[in-house]
Structures are given as structure tokens and as C-alpha cells.
Amino acid sequence: MARQHLAIFLKSGAEKILRGEKQVEIRLSQSRIPPYGVICKGDEIYLKDAGGLVTGKVIVENVLFYDSLTPEMIGNIRREYAEVSRLNDDFWQFKAQARYASIIFLKTPRQFLTPFAFHKNDRRGWLVFEENLRLL
């Protein structure tokens, strides 16, 4: 059964996905936190910029997971996906010591005519919903 996710983006990442400029989302972390290991092909990702509204959604076309990352592996990921992920140098420097990677291939971006608010009280950048959100 497909899950629904809410991804929080910095610096207009959601907008880049909705415009088709960003076809791959990369999440790097020090620990096994979502979306690592919990996102699957066919899942829906609702898109929200930090402090903003939920502006659209996208479908997961495929996903790759890596663990025990080394700086060399992170460099390889960067070279392979730099253009389609649209991530800047600051991101790669900040995540240089990551141990886990989720590489999420995106398709069918859909911008909502009426964006909506979703309030949360923590700093998590990714939420997973086991039950249908029934937002639309």
C-alpha cells in the first residue's frame, strides 16, 4: 500500500520540483531517519517549503538507499545526480559526513490550485503517514 509523506524544503525546493527543474530529491543523514528505508515506489510526497504552505505533490518513481557512506561515495552521488537534484555546494559541504542516503526519483509533479497549511511543532524535515491524509 502506498504511503503519503510530507517533505519540508529549504530555499524553494518544492517550487523547483513543481516546475520540473528538480527530478531527484536527495536526503543525507547521520542516522536512519525518514525517508531512509520507509519510502517506496508509488508513494506520494506532499511538498512544503519551510514556514510555508503545502503547495503540491509528486509521485515516487524509484528510490535508492545507501548506508555506511564514505566521502568518496558522497562524491560519487554528487557527480551522478548534481544536475537533476539541483543541490548547491553548501548542501554537499554540510552533509559531507553523512552515513545514510535516500535518493528519490520523482515524477508527475502537481501544483495545487489552493495551497493549504500543515502545522507541525518540531524540526523534522520529513513526515510519514501510515494512513491516508485525506487532505484533498
Overall mean confidence score, pLDDT: 93
Structural class, please? alpha+beta
The span between the termini is 18 Å
Q: Rg to the nearest angstrom? A: 14 Å
Largest sheet: 6 strands, mixed
Percentage of residues in helical conformation: 10-25%
Low-confidence parts, pLDDT < 50 over ≥5 residues? Answer: none
What's the shape? Answer: globular
How many separate helices?
3
User: In CATH, what is the homologous superfamily?
Assistant: Hypothetical protein
The count of β-strands is 6
Count of domains: 1
The helix/strand series, from N terminus to C terminus, equals EHEEEHHEE
CATH topology tier name: Archaeosine Trna-guanine Transglycosylase, Chain: A, domain 4
The main sheet orders its strands as: 2-5-4-3-1-6
Strand content: 35-45%
Task: Using the coordinates above, name the CATH class.
Answer: Mainly Beta
Q: What can you see in these coordinates?
A:
The chain has a single domain, classed as Roll (Archaeosine Trna-guanine Transglycosylase, Chain: A, domain 4). It is built from three helices and six strands, in the order E-H-E-E-E-H-H-E-E. The chain has helices spanning 13-18, 71-85, 89-94; strands spanning 4-9, 24-29, 44-49, 54-66, 100-116, 126-129. It has a six-stranded mixed β-sheet with strand order 2-5-4-3-1-6. The radius of gyration is 14 Å and the shape is globular. 26% of the residues are buried. The model has no long low-confidence stretch (mean pLDDT 93).
List keywords for this structure.
136 residues; alpha+beta; six-stranded mixed sheet; 3 helices; 6 strands
